[in-house]
Each structure stands twice: as structure tokens, then as C-alpha cells.
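In this section we walk through a basic example: taking a raw amino acid sequence and producing a predicted 3D structure, encoded as C-alpha cells. The instruction is simple. Fold the sequence below.
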Amino acid sequence: MKKVLFWAGVVLSATLLIFSLRGLKLDEFSSSLRQANLVWLVPGIAAYFVAVTLRAWRWQRLLQPVGYIPLSRLFTIVVIGYMGNNIYPARIGELVRAYVLKRSRGVSIATSLSTVFIERLVDAIVMASFVFIGLPRVPNLPDWVRQSVLVGSGFFAVATVIVLTLAMAPSLTHGVANALAARLLPLRMRAPALGFVEQFVQGAAGLRSPTNLLAIVVGSVFIWLTETAKYWCIAQGFGLSLGFVDLMLVNGVSNLFTIIPGPPGAVGTFDAGSILTLEALGVSQALASAYTVVLHVALWLPVTALGLTFFLREGLHWSDLRNAREVT
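The resulting C-alpha cell sequence is shown next.
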């Protein structure tokens, strides 16, 4: 089933990419690349690693009930996770993060994954907010893109409300889980399922403090604003006269597209979302494509190289990536 979903994602990613690149004039694309001022990559990449540091800090807040884990340790693990996402399909990097944290700190896989799941939901809501802020600026965005983004945003909004409600009300969560397990699951599956729910409740404990919850939400907004600063820096290198809000929209749509399962590094989905949004903002297809290629490489290469360095320094092996998949 996983292979079917993966290949379906690959086909969909390829279809989106082909659709976004149809009619591309290669000479104009090459010219746009040659004229880019790549010096702007330096502050852009610096902004990106500030955002990665903020992600490690947010994870530290979510893991507080488990115990104190130094920010430097979590930064290393987050970067290794990015490397895993960028070279393996199906976002295996999230499993690698949980695996490495268990290996080094003894935190259960289920607890780690519940915090990662919460991170992704909050990220999706922030991305959806960026999209809603920017959508009025692009009335000519293709209807299917607009509708897909709105439907996806609505789904994640509902999911986030449900998850936050369950996270902050453990007694309610246990009651619902016990009732559903008794009705829907055979006896042999109830204990493992309820055990997973218990681990989720433990992983979500960091949300029950109003101060912590506010810090996580505000921190998530700053994470994505900082990442958008990278989009802005690279846009300066291409001479794009786009405002910061425009690039918030590009960031939001391109990252919401990556929810579609597909090849490692979100190849195809990210690119299609970025190119289509930039075209809707009035950027030529050639320039939009050149910008997106450089942006994607700048998002992929530095963190993957650093993640591989950390991976080897930790004494990890490629077999550990398989172990991360098998342990779940």
C-alpha cells in the first residue's frame, strides 16, 4: 500500500511539474539564471538556518514534559531529519528524528512522533494563514489551485482544532479512545492502539500550559516569516519586484503542495506550487522557473550537506534509516 501511495504521488508530482513547465522557453530560462545575483544566497541561507534553529527551540518546548534537552542537541537532530526528508521519500526524516532522539535520550518513538505531528499541524495552519493573507493579491490564480489550497487549509484547520482539544483534555482523549477501541477494534489490537494514544497524550503535554502553547504558536509564525525572508533575499537576486506578502503567498502555496506524497525533497510538488503562484503574481514563466530552481536548491543543498555531516558524526549508518522505518 505504501508503494502504491508513493508511486501515485510521484505520478502526481510529475504531472504538476509538467503542467507548470508547459511551453517553457529554455533560452529565456537560461538567461534568467545567468543574470541572477547569487550573492543574495548568503543572507537567504543564513535566514533559513535561523528558522531551523527556531524549529529546534519549538521542539524543545514541546518536549519539556519529557525532560530538558539542550537546544544544540535538538538542532543536530532536526537537521538530520531534514537530510532524511531530502534524500528519502515519504518524509522518512520525521521518523529519523524520533529514532535518533530515542537512541540518544531514550524518548519513546510514539511520544516524539506525536510532537512532530503537532508541529506539522501548526505549520499547516500558519501556511494556510499566509495563503489567506495573500490570495486577494492574485485574483487570476487558477481555480483548481485556489480550491485545492482552500480545501486543504480547511481540513488542517479542523484537524488542528480536534488535536488541540484532545491534547489539552487527556481524560477526554482516553474516554474517546477507549470507547472507539471497544466498538471498532478486535481485542488483540486494543492494547497497542490504546498504548499509542497514551504516548500521544504524553507527547502533547507541552500544549497544556497556556504560556507554552502561546510560545509554540508565536514561534511557528516567526519560523515561517524567517523562511519567507529567504524567499525575499533570493527574489532580490533575480530582481523580482514582489512584496513580502506576495512571497508569503508563494511560501504558503508551495509548502502546502508538498503535503502530496512524492519524491524526496518535494521535487515537483514544491516547484509547481511556486511557479504557478509566481505566474499568477505576474512573473514570467521563465523567470519564475529560474527563481524556483535556485530557491529549491538553496533550500535542499545546505541543510542536506550539514545533516549528512551530523549523521556521520553521530556514528549513524544507512541501516539506521531502515531501522527508523521498521521501529514504527
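Looking at the output, two observations stand out. Residues 285-313 form the longest helix (29 residues). Residues 196 and 263 are 29 Å apart (CA to CA). In the next section we compare this with other chains.
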